[in-house]
Design a protein that fits this description.
mainly alpha, 9 helices
C-alpha cells in the first residue's frame, strides 16, 4: 500500500491498517532497538513508545520521507533516549571496530588469496532452513551494535543508504564502513557454517 493511502487510513483510525503496519515492522524495530538498550524488555518498551509516537505524530507527517524512514527515525530517537536513561550510549565511531577482513585473506596485489565461499543454490537452500536462520540471527546479535544496526536497517529492513544516514545522523562514509564490516563479519560466520555443514 502506498504511504499516502496508508497515512490516510491511519489518520481515520483504521485498526486493520495499524495492525498491518505492526505486522510488517515490529520485529525489525525490536532488533534495531536491542542494539541500543541492554535488555529485550527495554527494546520492547522503545518500540511501544515508537508506535505511540507514530500515532501522536500522524497529523504532522508531511511525507518528505517515506513512512518507513519516518518510523525508524522515531524508533532511533526513542532508543537513544532510553539508552541515555539507562546510561548506555552506542558510539558510531567507525575507527574502533578493527579491520573488516583478515589481511591474510588477501594477496600482495590486493586480490583475494582466500576468496569467500561461493554461494550455490544448495547453500541458499541450506541458509533458508530454520536452524540456519536461527544461527544467522545469533550471528547478527554478535556484531558490534553500530554494525548490527546498519546491517539490520540496510539488509533486513531494506532502507537506502541515504535513509540510514539520515536516521542515524552519520556520514555516508561511516555508514559504508559499518555496513561493510558488518557484512564481512556475517560472511565469516556463514562461511564457517557452510564449511561445517559439508
Amino acid at each position: 500500500m502506498e504511504d499516502t493511502a496508508l497515512i490516510d487510513r491511519l489518520r481515520r483510525g483504521d485498526e486493520q491498517a495499524f495492525a498491518a503496519l505492526i505486522a510488517t515492522y515490529h520485529m525489525g524495530m525490536i532488533r534495531v532497538a536491542q542494539a541500543f538498550v541492554p535488555e529485550r524488555g527495554l527494546a520492547e518498551e522503545v518500540v511501544q513508545e515508537t508506535w505511540l509516537g507514530l500515532l501522536r505524530g500522524l497529523d504532522r507527517f508531511e511525507g518528505r520521507a517515506s513512512l518507513k524512514t519516518w518510523l525508524y527515525a522515531i524508533l532511533i530517537n526513542q532508543a537513544r533516549t532510553m539508552a541515555k536513561r539507562e546510561r548506555r550510549t552506542i558510539p558510531f565511531d567507525h575507527t574502533s571496530d578493527g579491520r573488516a577482513e583478515d589481511p591474510a585473506r588477501f594477496a600482495a596485489d590486493g586480490s583475494w588469496a582466500q576468496p569467500p565461499v561461493p554461494f550455490t543454490e544448495d547453500v541458499e537452500d541450506r541458509l533458508a532452513h530454520a536452524p540456519m536462520l536461527a544461527q544467522l540471527g545469533a550471528a547478527l546479535e554478535k556484531l558490534p551494535a553500530p554494525q548490527r544496526i546498519v546491517v539490520t536497517l540496510r539488509d533486513i529492513e531494506e532502507l537506502t543508504s541515504q535513509e540510514v544516514c539520515g536516521i542515524l545522523e552519520i556520514s555516508a562514509g561511516n555508514q559504508r564502513v559499518l555496513l561493510h564490516r558488518g557484512r564481512a563479519g556475517l560472511r565469516r560466520i556463514i562461511e564457517a557454517l557452510i564449511e561445517g555443514g559439508k
